[in-house]
Design a protein that fits this description.
Number of domains of chain B: 1
Radius of gyration of chain B: 19 Å
Oligomer: heterodimer
Order of helices and strands of chain A: HEEHEHEHHEHEHEHEHEHEHEHHHEEEE
Number of helices of chain B: 11
CATH superfamily of the largest domain in chain A: Response regulator
Shape of chain A: elongated
Radius of gyration of chain A: 22 Å
Helix content of chain B: over 70%
Order of helices and strands of chain B: HHHHEEEHHHHEHHH
Distance between the termini of chain A: 67 Å
Number of domains of chain A: 2
CATH architecture of chain B: Orthogonal Bundle
Structural class of chain B: mainly alpha
Strand order of the largest sheet of chain A: 8-7-9-10-11-14-15
CATH class of chain B: Mainly Alpha
Number of strands of chain B: 4
Number of strands of chain A: 15
Strand content of chain A: 15-25%
Largest interface: A-B, 32 and 38 residues
Shape of chain B: globular
Strand order of the largest sheet of chain B: 1-4
CATH architecture of the largest domain in chain A: 3-Layer(aba) Sandwich
Chain lengths: 369, 303
Amino acid sequence: MVASFKRLACATALAGLVMTTMANAADIKIGIVAPMTGQLASEGQDMENAVKMAIDAANAKGGVNGDKIATITADDACDPQQAVTAGSKLVSEGVTAIVGGYCSGAVLPTLKIYGDAGVPFVIIGANSTKLVAANQGNAFLANSTGDMQATTAVELFKKNGYKKIAVIDEGDAYSSDLAKLTAEAFKNAGGEIAARETTTAGEQDYSAVVTKVKSSGADAVFWTAYHAGGALLTKQLRQAGFQGGIVLGDGNNSPEYLEIAGSAGEGVYLLSPPTVDLLSGAADFKAKYKAAYGRDAGAYAALSHDVGDLIVDAMARAKSADQKAIVAALKASDFKGLAGEIKFTDKNTLQTSNFHPVVAKGGKWVAAE
Amino acid sequence: MTLDLVIQQLVNGLIVGSFYALIALGYSMVFGVIKLLNFAHGDIYMSGAFVGLIVFSFVGIWVGNGWLGVVCALLVSMLAVGLLGVVIERFAYRPMRSAPRLSILITALGASMVLNGAALALTGGRHFAFNTDLGFAGVDISAVHITYTQMVLVAASILLMAGMQAFVSRTMYGKAMRAVSIDMGASRLMGIDVDRVIALTFFMGSALAAGGGVMAGAYYGSVHFFMGFIMGLKAFTAAVIGGIGSVPGAMLGGLLLGLLEAYGSSLPFVGSEWRDVFVFGALILFLVFKPTGILGRSIVERV
């Protein structure tokens, strides 16, 4: 009795993994893999909604190559093990292509499954450089990898006329990598690194770093770590009378930063991922999204919508549901979406960074001119 | 090192140093009377900052976000957290007083985790803004900008510490404290209410740490559950350098440590990431070569 109950429970759990929308045999099936449960369920829900919105729009125009498109959502819960189960399930359902993936850790083990099956896979959120190495050629990263932020940072420095930069990180892998890449890129672009400093996470007093920055004669500071330290650093730089520019890495994209930094945060630049609120052309999309789903579009909704459009576009250009043809079509993508341009390199990563600078004005982030 | 840099680092060192000194005082006083390294002391500092923030946001409705609000927050928080210290002593340390030294040390670690965990659970790990209207106005000495807030902060902590020193050296209770620290058994025989003196010590030490917490929160503008950890370690270091158990030693140790950090990290070819290396390197050197610190007396262990 207990054993059969367990079996039933397992079967129910497996069934719960895959939520199939009404799919006719003739339809093209697109898999959506996203965290539908767990801490990031809200992001997953946004991804599903936004992709469906794009697919529905395509269906309303008659589908692609004469076929209607159906979607199947699988929950990876941002967990590597569940992601493997979800991925295998989608492949055995015979989906034509898959979009999604928010957590790099959960996407990584599925690349082999999709690669072996030859399913075209467009990754929406996940952006670890590890994904690039594990890719078998069928996967595409629609979000900038973390290292591309360095390119955007250097572009901003040059645009703002900064010549000597102080680069500061918090000593962890993410922020020190970004600091290193940016420092190298800025030097190659003819800039000068006036100071290269590291702070201790959890520390409140940054006076040592602030003093070094001031005496180094840097005309701007680039902070690559997270919002808590960023807010303290900003405040203490301004308190010490530092007049130069302050630029923050994407880890500072939090309302807490603006709260804590207060008036000292005014005029500070942030390198933002293509968050829907900070995209200039996304107002119409936001309104439509809210009308369709009764909730505000989350951070990755715009990019998810772009990927939905992109996969329809690729299938149309491939003129068939043949997976090899779709992969080839994705490779040749030249797509302009809400979140920016999607063109792939020979490693299937974005050619141009989709990070973009925003600036703090009146206690809010607004798109930088 | 240019003169500007020397002055700037002096300012930096004095500010962090006064925080270290305020917290080191509590460490030192508690160690003085019951020979306990109160590891919960850093979390007491953190609790002080949170209580201060709550009071500050509350009274801010009537008195605004200026000095008056900060002073209210400071006083209420010192009182409330002083009592918290007494409660911790009553329930966590007093039952363990005759237990082996290691047991009570572990209890102190437990008390630290209880406070830290409770703060994490209550705040969800968020960083809270402690936004005052104190502003960045001040005076400029060549290229060094010193804000009025910084001056008041250093003055306030020196005042608090001087008051503490006067209390310990001039009053009857202070005398009782010193007596308990020298010989608890004999003090009891002389009619001193030892439990009460110990409770008072915890009250004063915790109140000072809370004062430090409120000032740090208001000065740096942010408060979070983990802020007591590094501060606790560094204040402990300051107490050891100054001579643990000694009140003037704690103040001296705190200021010296602040200056060591500031000047150490501005040496050529040394990045600011080395500043903790200086701090804890100094701790090890003192523990090895002069465990009684600069102003501490050697304690003869009686068997």
